[in-house]
Amino acid sequence: MLNEREIESCYLGQFIPVHYHHNMLMDNNRMHSFKSAIDYVVKPGMKVLELGGGTGVLSWFAAAKADKVYCVEFNPDMVQQAKKFLAINPNGDKVDVIHADAFEYLPPEPVDVVICEMIHVAMLREKQVEVIESFKRRYAQKFGGPLPIFIPEAVLMAAQPLQQEYDFEGFYAPIVQFQETGVVHNNTVELAQPAVYAVIDFTQPNALSYAWQGSFVVERSGTVNAMRFVTKNILAVVQERGTTIDWLNHYMTLPLAQPVQAAAGDVLQVSFAYRAGGSIPSLEASLQATVVYQAEQAAAIEAVPAFA
Predict the structure, then answer these.
(1) GO terms for molecular function, please (predicted)?
(2) How many CB atoms lie under 10 A from the CB of residue 173?
(3) How confident is the model at residue 2 (pLDDT cuts 50, 70, 90)?
(4) Confidence band (pLDDT; 50, 70, 90) for 7?
(5) End-to-end CA distance of the chain, in Å?
(6) Which of 84, 119, 178, 248 is the most buried (most CB within 10 A)?
């Protein structure tokens, strides 16, 4: 029988099936960004811990330089897959694949770097924030300071109002959509610039919930019927060049229960609240948008002559 945490983990995506890991391996943007960040951060002789290792590929990247890598995975099927893959790759012998819960595991010795990629758009579904916050507390109690370097180091999260097409061959279905970044989406109209609503710095304590109310100046008239959520992962800060190695998740677009009409120049107020690791419907249910300033109406009022 599964306990409560295991049931929730299954529901929220912790037991990701093998075929989905294949999709992650095929994601060149994800793979190249993590490989570059790990190659930059991990120095020869270091000890590395990966929480939520999956196929073991990120641990394998670290093993190119590290002396020892502890790869922790909760899914027993993936533990076997990772061991199989690492056995047929160079330096795979430097990776110790451990079947354990990332919420409970601590390495037998201090480590220099912790890799954790339990990342979903907006920090939903998967347990990235909660796992790292738990790890930091337990690690400090066992080993004291300093804490290891984390990959990713930080996360920026932003929201953007959209007019999204939900007509599928005449069938109207407002439904969550995931979109590739860096390409044009003909059925999506961006009505305002994105606004950052949360910054996560894994070297600092982080809250496990987000409640935001912010305003957008509408740049293009249309029907605001969806919000795009953008998640930019700062995998590593390259201090000597003043740059970062980033990984941008696919955009997540959530429909609004109550669409609103907005004209260019209007001010749109948006609010939402959810917890890290929560479900997508929990965020969707909290989404609200309201036009709080109408540019056309304000201009009409200003145009009325004033009489003494």
Answers:
(1) histone methyltransferase activity; protein-arginine N-methyltransferase activity
(2) 8
(3) very low
(4) very low
(5) 81
(6) 119
* Helix 18-25 × helix 28-41 angle, to 10°: 70
Domains and CATH numbers, the chain: 4-117 (3.40.50.150), 154-298 (2.70.160.11)
DSSP assigned state of 216: E
Q: How far apart are CA 226 and CA 257, in angstroms?
A: 9
* Mean pLDDT of the 292-296 span: 86
Residues 166-178: pLDDT tens digits? 999 999 999 999 9
Nearest to 47 by CA among 151, 153, 148: 148
Residue in the block written with tokens 């930019």 = 232
Task: Give the type of residue at 91.
Answer: N
Residue-wise pLDDT for 79-136, tens only, equals 999 999 999 999 999 999 999 999 999 999 999 999 999 999 999 999 999 999 999 9
The two beta strands, 188-190 and 149-151, are unpaired
Residues 6+ apart with CB under 8 A from 190: 160, 162, 219, 220, 228
Q: The tokens 């998740």 sit on which residue? A: 249
For CA atoms 4, 9, 15, 20, give the dihedral sign.
Answer: positive
Strands 251-262 vs 222-238: parallel, antiparallel or unpaired: antiparallel
**What is the distance, to the nearest Å, from the Cα of residue 176 to the centroid of all Cα atoms in its chain?**
16
pLDDT in tens, 179-237: 999 899 999 999 999 999 999 999 999 999 999 999 999 999 999 999 999 999 999 99
Q: Which amino acid is at 169?
A: E
Dist CA 6 CA 171 (whole Å):
37
b (16+ CB within 10 A) / e for 252-262: bbbbbeebbeb
Task: Report the SS3 class of residue 153.
Answer: coil
pLDDT of 13: 44
